[in-house]
Write a structure and sequence with these properties.
GO terms for molecular function: DNA binding; transposase activity. Keywords: Membrane, Transmembrane, Transmembrane helix. This is Transposase. This protein has helices at about 25-40, 50-55, 70-95, 105-135, 140-150, 155-160, 165-180; strands at about 1-10, 15-25, 55-60, 140, 180. By secondary structure, it is α+β, with helices and mostly antiparallel strands. Strands 1-2-3 form a 3-stranded antiparallel beta sheet, covered by helices on one side. A two-stranded antiparallel sheet has the order 4-5. A hairpin with a 5-residue loop joins strand 1 (about 1-10) and strand 2. It starts with a strand and ends in a 6-residue tail after the last strand.
């Protein structure tokens, strides 16, 4: 890990920042190279040689104070990325960024309901991903798992005390099995 404590960014006003270069571990670099390879297979266009060459390095720019070590900054960025993915799922798949015109009290109720559904979906998603990894050695994408579970939350709630609960869970399991990837050397 290498840190440059004074790097100035900005076209007109130069703002002081810190630049942190983090070299991935061998395992992290292999995972990143695997992702680049998968992206080349699934997305049109060329993967630039620069992307391949820099696959072992993460570049972070921050204005956090010097008291926070470079190692802590790397960890904070990892947490931040997980939050970004959660918000992306929330906005894209749950359509949380779109609301009709309504009174504030109704909007707040709607928002709380959306947040509860998001929380329950996240909990189910985690449980399914853990189960598939432990029992079947299958990796499930967090986003795809959330996308598959979200429409079933209402059905699961209505069926919670009925025999159809099990059949709904089995249906979700079949859907997730179809979208999962067989175990590789990478953990979810």
């Amino acid at each position: 890990m290498r840190e440059f404590p004074r790097v100035y960014l900005g076209k007109e006003e130069k703002l002081p920042t810190r630049l942190i270069l983090y070299r991935f571990t061998k395992k992290e670099q292999q995972r990143q190279e695997y992702r680049i390879k998968r992206r080349a297979q699934t997305k049109p266009g060329q993967i630039k040689q620069k992307s391949k060459a820099l696959s072992g390095i993460s570049t972070l720019i921050t204005n956090l104070p010097q008291e926070i070590t470079a190692k802590e900054v790397v960890q904070l960025y990892r947490y931040r990325w997980q939050i970004e993915l959660l918000f992306k799922t929330w906005k894209s798949d749950f359509k949380a960024s779109y609301f009709r015109k309504m009174k504030q009290a109704r909007w707040e109720c709607h928002l709380y309901a959306e947040l509860i559904i998001l929380l329950i979906s996240t909990l189910f998603s985690y449980q399914f991903r853990f189960y598939f990894w432990q029992e079947k050695q299958i990796i499930l994408s967090e986003r795809l798992t959330m996308r598959a579970i979200q429409p079933k939350i209402g059905i699961l709630w209505r069926a919670r005390d009925q025999p159809s609960w099990q059949s709904t869970l089995q249906e979700i399991e079949r859907i997730l099995f179809a979208i999962g990837r067989k175990r590789t050397t990478h953990k979810p």
